[in-house]
Amino acid sequence: VLRTLHPVGLSAVVPVVVGCLVLATSCSSPDASTHVEQYAPESNASTSAAVRPPVGDPGRGRELVERFECARCHEVPDVVAPPLTKQCVGCHAAIADGGFEAPKALLAEWRGRLHSLPAAPSLTVARQLLRPSWIQDFLLSPHDLRPNLAATMPRLAISPAEAADVAAFLAGPPTSALPPFEGDVEHGRQLFDDKGCSACHAFSGAGHGPPSAVGSLAVVLAPDLRWTRERLRPDRLVAWIENPRAVVADARMPHTPLKRSEAEALAAFVAQAPLGPAPTLPTVTRLPVLERPVGYEEVREQVFHKVCWHCHSQPDFARGDGGPGMSGGFGFPPLQLDFSTYDAIQGGYVNHAGEPVSLFKPTGPERLPVLLSVLLSRQREERGGRGDHRGMPLGLPALSAQDVQLVESWIAQGRPR
Ligand code: HEC
Ligand code: HEC
Ligand code: HEC
Ligand code: HEC
User: Fold this and answer.
1) Which of 91, 195, 261, 394 is the most exposed place for a label (fewest CB within 10 A)?
2) Alpha carbon separation from 317 to 8, 297, 312, 332 (Å, rounded)
3) pTM of the entire structure?
4) Atom 9 of ligand 1 has which residue's CA nearest to it?
5) Ligand 3 pocket residue status of 241, Cβ below 6 Å
């Protein structure tokens, strides 16, 4: 029965992907015309700007949050979580912490393979910390924020107006302006190590890579502080560093006892330290197709059943829901795309216009098969670009050049069984 909850329990072994291979190259440069609100300039990181209410419609935003099923991954304020069988993060977390009822041996096997979505940031915390304008931009062009979390925010089919509505719904209560703080960047740099901040946080471009010891979810969920100056509400920075749990009761970041002057120095370091270039991923080259024979079994084990199948499967396996790429979800219509068997893969899917499409149909300027195009598109998305299709696997690390080569070789060899 347990095996039917989710297309799980197959014997494919998933190598552990440590850290995110997807350090973003591009932070979406905010486009002034789409901003939902404006802030006063922040010369001093500043606390001087009061946060103005966003322009979107919070009521519509709430409806959209339900339509896009944000609560399948996030804790969302005032939105009830769906049943466990629909919760990507909730179910994975229950498996990790033993709250999921299954035989011990099976749980251990699953835990060995589960690594992509052990947790997601809480939007209850995010609404207190993040600027609505940043949330809007991020929903339109998500990029990687957390080096130790393999999954990224998926690129949804959301319009700028819808993103503004969602941002308005998620906007925390406005606060009054606080006096600007004084802090010495170099003192903050010193404290960042001395007070243990660097045990959890990367601060790329300011000399701090990802922490190597990934013990707890607090480390997994600690954002790279490189993005903080563009995303955090300026009036929250010092207060958060001083005591996160006084800002939001369910903050994961622990309270570090600090003097006010130390919190200000750390805030100055976070907000004002000169930043080197964003980390970039090496370019991936497409490898030539393999000479040796590549059969279905190998591609199934290495690709289809390792990741694709978790969102594109038979409803029987998943109690009436074949995953968002099959039965619809996250705001997408049902595409009926099933990666569970050879025949299902040959069957293709139904596009948004209701037309049947083969996964092997040549598309785009390069006339690449759809299946290959989605994989290459994901590699591009991770490097700040866009491909001809929405990149797959959706919101998860792109396939390696070797895995793409395997798929391409299998297609080139006539898709042998
Ligand atoms: C499939 C799971 C999934 C779904 C569905 C999803 N998200 Fe996310 N989201 C993530 C992950 C994972 C991250 C963390 C990304 C990172 O750290 O790089 C994230 C990050 C975010 C962030 C940044 C929060 C922070 O503290 O960094 C916001 C805001 C957000 N999501 C909003 C939404 C909204 C709104 C929706 C629905 C419209 C949504 N998400 C749907 C997985 C999801
Ligand atoms: C009912 C519990 C449950 C739900 C709901 C669930 N999963 Fe999983 N998921 C699992 C288990 C168990 C595994 C490991 C099984 C295996 O690989 O044999 C897994 C594995 C995965 C994997 C492959 C391993 C990895 O970490 O990369 C991905 C990707 C994944 N799930 C994504 C999702 C997404 C996306 C959703 C929501 C649409 C989801 N899961 C919903 C239980 C669940
Ligand atoms: C045990 C891990 C841990 C430690 C230690 C830690 N943090 Fe955090 N920090 C987090 C997590 C997790 C978040 C995300 C919000 C949350 O859920 O609590 C966060 C969020 C932040 C943010 C908001 C960043 C953003 O872009 O959203 C700042 C700023 C920050 N931390 C600064 C610090 C400073 C300065 C220190 C040292 C005094 C520190 N942190 C120590 C885990 C940690
Ligand atoms: C986290 C869930 C998830 C995972 C994992 C995933 N997909 Fe998808 N996939 C989706 C969703 C949702 C859609 C629908 C997107 C749309 O309608 O634009 C989709 C659509 C597609 C499409 C149709 C794309 C188009 O533009 O018409 C292809 C092809 C595809 N996926 C292939 C894959 C392959 C191959 C993998 C594994 C490497 C994979 N998917 C993994 C969720 C997922």
Assistant:
1) 261
2) 8, 20, 11, 20
3) 0.91
4) 153
5) yes
